[in-house]
């Protein structure tokens, strides 16, 4: 169940990034290609979570969530991210932020549940 919820979160974040890439981010240097990689990576990671029972997709989900959410936080700061300044506004932004934090928490819980005493 935790893996399925984690997969749903990373897939949702990936889908949002693909939507935003299609909606204009593809024309932005550096960040545009990163949105495409993030979108495809999120969808592939979701499949791996459901198909492979090893710990690696869970660790990847933690990294994915931290990196993606971290980049958004930096982009909303005064300095921005590679010239892009985002805001904490809009359904795509909040959907991504929530699903990325949830992916980190859910993947961590799945590791704790699947590997008790081995961490």
UniProtKB/TrEMBL annotation:
It comes from Cellulomonas soli. It comes from the Bacteria. Keywords: Membrane, Transmembrane, Transmembrane helix. This is Integral membrane protein. The chain crosses the membrane at residues 31-51, 58-82, 94-112. The keyword Membrane applies. The lineage of its organism: Bacteria, Bacillati, Actinomycetota, Actinomycetes, Micrococcales.
């Amino acid at each position: 169940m935790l893996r399925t919820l984690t997969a749903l979160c990373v897939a949702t974040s990936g889908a949002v990034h693909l939507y935003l890439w299609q909606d204009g981010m593809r024309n932005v240097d550096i960040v545009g290609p990163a949105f495409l990689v993030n979108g495809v990576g999120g969808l592939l990671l979701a499949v791996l979570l459901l198909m492979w029972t090893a710990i690696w997709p869970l660790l990847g989900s933690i990294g994915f969530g931290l990196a993606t959410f971290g980049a958004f936080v930096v982009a909303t700061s005064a300095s921005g991210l590679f010239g892009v300044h985002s805001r904490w506004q809009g359904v795509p932004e909040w959907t991504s932020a929530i699903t990325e934090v949830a992916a980190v928490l859910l993947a961590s819980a799945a590791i704790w549940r699947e590997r008790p005493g081995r961490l």
